[in-house]
Amino acid sequence: MAKLPEAQVPGLYHRRVGEILLSAVSDGFLNGSNAALQNISGDDAARMLTEAFRPTPRRGSVNTFLLRGGGRTALIDTGCGPSMQASAGQLFGNLAAAGVDPAGIDTILLTHLHPDHSNGLTGADGQALFPNAELCMHRAELAYWDDPASAARAAETGQGVPYFAAAQAQLAPYRQRLRLFEGGEVFPGVTATPLPGHTPGHSGYAVASGGETLLIWGDIVHVPEIQVPRPEVGMQFDVEPEQAIATRRRIFDMVATDRLLVAGMHLHFPGFAHLARRGDGYVLVPEAWNVAL
User: Fold this and answer.
1) Which strands, in side-by-side order, build the sheet including 72-76?
2) Hey, what domains does the chain have and what are their CATH numbers?
3) Residue 102, preceding bond cis, omega within 30 degrees?
C-alpha cells in the first residue's frame, strides 16, 4: 500500500485576469476570539458560525495574491510571518511550491499594515525577506503608523498597541524603497482603491486586463458568515469603526450592482467570490473552481 499523505497539497490556486496570471497563495489560517466582533452578541456570533458549519470561536483564512504579467511580479500582502500562530506563516513554502523566489518579486502592494498582512516583510533578524521589492502603500497608511499620537490613542483604547512597534520593525529595511500612493495605477493593470475605516489607508486593488476586472478588497470582510449578512458587524481592530461599516456597505452595493468578481484576504481559500443580493441583504457566492488557465 502506498504511503498515505501527511500534509495537504500546496495552498495555491491560479486564475487568469486577461493577460495577468493571478495566484492565490495561502498563508494558512488564524484562530481568534468571537469577542473581537463588534455590534453582535457572543451568542449570536456563535449561532451564526455553527449554522454555517464553521468552528466557533472563529477561524479565518489568511490569503495573499501573486500577480505576474509583462515580465514583472507583484505580491499583495505578505501574511503573518513566523511570529503569530503555527497554522499561519505558510506563504514562503507555498511560493517555493509555485517556483517563485522572493528575490524575483519586484513589488509588494500592501492593503494595510496589520501584522497578518505585513509580518512576512521581515525575518526574525529584521532583514527584508523581499530583497529587491519596492514596498507600496497608501500615503495615509504610513502616516498613521508613523504618528506617535495614533499610537497614544491606540494605547488609550487598548486597540492593537503592539502593532505600532511591529509596523516600525517591518518598515525599517524598506524605508529607502517605499512608494506611497493615494490612488491610481500602482502596477501594470492594477489600480489602487482606497477603502478607509479598517485603517486610515486600507486599500483594495482592482486588477484589469483583457476586458476582465477583479477587485481584491483586503479586509472588507473578516468573518464572511457573519459580516456578509450583517455588514454592521465590525472588528475590534477597526481604527475608525463607523467609517469601516460605511465603506463595507458601499463596496457591497458596488460589487453586487456591477456583478464584480472579488477576492479577499479572509475569504475562505482561494478567496474568489461574487456578492449577490438576497432580499434586503447579501449572500456570498464562491466562484467555481476552474481547472483551465
Assistant:
1) 12-17, 20-31, 59-69, 72-76, 107-109, 134-138, 178-181
2) 12-286 (3.60.15.10)
3) no
DSSP string, 117-147: HHGGGB-TTS-BSSTTPEEEEEHHHHHHHT-
**Sequence letter at residue 143:** A
Contact of 87 with 31, CB cutoff 8 Å? yes
Q: Which amino acid is at 159?
A: Q
Q: Which three cell numbers stand for residue 8?
A: 495537504
What span, in angstroms and rounded, lies between the C-alpha atoms of 143 and 34? Answer: 30
Query: In which residue are the cell numbers 477597526 written?
Result: 238
- Find the DSSP H helices in 134-220: 139-145, 148-157, 161-171
Q: pLDDT by residue (tens digit) across 121-133?
A: 999 999 999 999 9
> Please, are residues 225 and 34 in contact by the beta-carbon 8 Å criterion?
no
pLDDT digits (tens, 9 = 90+) for 1-27: 789 988 889 999 999 999 999 999 999
